[in-house]
Amino acid sequence: MEIARFDSGNRNDPGEFLLACLSEAESRESRRTILEKLMPLLPFGHHPLLQIEQHPDAMVRHRLRQHHVQYLNEIKLRLDVRRLIRGGIEIDLEQGAFLVSRLSGDPYWTPERFRQSLDALALPLQERYIQEKEPLEQLDLFLDYVFREQKLAGNQANYYDPRNSYLTEVIRTKTGIPVALGTLCVLIARRIALNLQGVNLPGHFMLVFKQEQTEIFMDPFHQGQRLDRQDCLGFLEKQYIPPANEYLQPASNLDILKRMYRNLIAYSVHQGDQNQEKILRQHFAILEDGQ
Q1: What H or E segment, with its residue span, contains residue 28?
Q2: Separation of alpha carbons 282 and 48, rounded Å
Q3: Which of 26, 46, 100, 143 is exposed most, by the fewest CB atoms within 10 A?
Q4: CA 20 to CA 152: how far, in whole Å?
């Protein structure tokens, strides 16, 4: 077994040692054995490059960056999607949306940095929010903050750019497609305990606020434009879809993530990017199978 003869790396640090082993592995069988031991040691959501760059051996870093980092990242992402859905309970929307953002190729975003960015977005709202007691006033405050002050808006000029689906990019540019903007709103709203949920309306992702007898739908792509149930059903009729109330039910976290993936798959097909399409379909299959 090749692992036994490798001298690079610190044996007291299993991850460091296994990265050194991988950099020198010559056979597919050896790489597979090393990866089985290495992958569970890498932090959830982290690009493998972050661990590679911490390795003390410059030659190991060079070999891994040159020959291994791309496929390591693909394997790591699949593993993280599997980790996300294990346990048989509702998956974590924040973690799932972050994994979608990892497809952007930026290796320096981590779940911790993502969470901190969301916390920072919500902080000014939290400080004002406690002063408002009535639910509708709280909703008004939220919508004014995210759409007027933060200027979240739909990217109408370049709608199909995949960056519109990555929340790490949406946080930076303040633009995106409906499901990404809506998901960002939900994640901010959760930090102030505002009951805001996503609605997977065919052709357009919406938000809904429910409080006792009050029900308000909102369009995240058009600065939180308020709609009622009949407006939403009318939207379906315009698409020749029989208007049914089942379409207006709050979406599960899993359904929201699937919608994100479907959008990205459609874009990769349109662009003829077969490699990205393959990766996206692999992730989608994991979500579908629940394993």
Answers
A1: helix 28-38
A2: 19
A3: 26
A4: 45
Alpha-carbon separation of residue 222 from 147, 154, 205 (angstroms): 9, 6, 11
In three-state secondary structure terms, 284 is helix
Average of per-residue pLDDT across 8-13: 61
> Taking a C-beta distance cutoff of 8 angstroms, is the pair 64, 58 a contact?
no
Q: For the chain, which domains are there?
A: 2-85 (no CATH), 93-289 (3.10.620)
Structure tokens at 170: 């949406």
The pLDDT value recorded for residue 135 is 83
Answer whether residue 4 shows pLDDT above 50.
no
Distances (CA, A) of 137 to 82, 172, 214, 272: 40, 28, 13, 47
Count the alpha carbons within 13 Å of 186 in the hemisphere toward its beta carbon: 24
Eight-state DSSP code of residue 150: S
pLDDT, position 132: 62
Are the beta carbons of 101 and 162 closer than 8 angstroms? Answer: no
**Angle (deg, nearest 10), helices 178-190 and 111-129:** 60
pLDDT for the residue 128: 80
The listed range with the strongest mean pLDDT (105-119, 132-146, 203-217) is 105-119
CA atoms within 13 A on the CB side of 108: 1
**Cα 235 to the chain's mean position, in Å?**
27
Cβ neighbours of residue 119 closer than 8 Å, sequence gap 6 or more: 191
Residues 9 and 4: their CA atoms lie apart, in Å, by: 12
> Distance between CA 128 and CA 151 in Å, rounded?
18
pLDDT tens-digit readout, 12-36: 789 999 999 999 999 999 999 999 9
End-to-end CA distance of the chain: 31
Q: Are strands 175-176 and 153-154 parallel, antiparallel or unpaired?
A: parallel
